[in-house]
TrEMBL record:
InterPro entries xref list: Flavdoxin-like, Flavodoxin, Flavodoxin/NO_synth, Flavodoxin_lc, Flavoprotein-like_sf
Keywords: Electron transport, Flavoprotein, FMN, Transport
The protein's required cofactors: FMN
Any GO MF annotation of the entry: electron transfer activity
NCBIfam families in alphabetical order: flav_long, PRK09267.1-4, PRK09267.1-5
Chain ranges of the Flavodoxin-like domain: 3-161
Pfam family, one: Flavodoxin_1
Transport in keyword set: yes
Similarity comment text for this entry: Belongs to the flavodoxin family.
Role, per record: Low-potential electron donor to a number of redox enzymes.
Protein name in the entry: Flavodoxin
Length: 165
């Protein structure tokens, strides 16, 4: 069983989080969707998908470009964990909403999704990445709560480690 991270990043924040998750899990492979075709995901049984939210609740550009190919994948029999970056202060009504779009698509492609997290400690008004009082994955806010990032990653990795490796 092999695991890899696929992500996209517009200003480097998701890039940094992807690297930290990889080191924390023991240097698993990391692919940037800016220069990797989405069908590379087919090579792995377990994948971590991540990226930031742009526009007003939209996917970032590289996710946008990869989207059509991504939507053609068959993720049944795959275990997927998700992470997203956003700014809960400036985009309080669409905080990390792109993660919600990725989640919905991953579910419709029949993956098993793990790694939901509590919304406690965040102060946004609304997010499409939220179901009741849970986010659908790890949520990082480098703009306002960067001091919490390492601990959030560490707790999440601990939570998913057994199932994602
Ligand atoms: C023009 C612009 C639009 C943004 N839109 C959103 C948004 O709708 N929701 C959100 O949570 N964050 C939004 N953000 C914040 C980014 O998602 C955040 O800064 C993130 O850490 C960037 O990660 P990246 O460098 O990996 O792309 C926006 C930032 C900018 C500059």
């Amino acid at each position: 069983m092999s695991t890899a991270i696929f992500y996209a990043s517009s200003t480097g924040n998701s890039d940094e989080v992807a690297s930290k998750i990889s080191s924390s899990l023991g240097e698993i492979e990391v692919f940037n969707l800016a220069n990797t075709k989405a069908d590379k995901i087919n090579d792995y049984d377990k994948v971590i998908l991540g990226g930031s939210t742009w526009g007003d609740g939209e996917l970032n550009d590289d996710w946008e470009d990869a989207w059509a190919d991504f939507c053609k994948l068959d993720l049944s029999n795959k275990t997927v964990a998700l992470f997203g970056l956003g700014d809960q202060e400036s985009y309080s009504d669409e905080f990390c909403s792109a993660l919600g779009a990725i989640y919905k698509q991953v579910v419709s492609l029949k993956a098993k999704v793990i790694g939901f997290t509590s919304t406690e400690g965040y102060y946004h008004d609304a997010s499409k990445a939220q179901i009741d009082n849970k986010f659908v994955g790890l949520v990082i806010d480098e703009d306002n709560q960067s001091d919490l990032t390492d601990k959030r990653i560490e707790d999440w990795v601990k939570d998913i480690k057994e199932e994602i490796l």
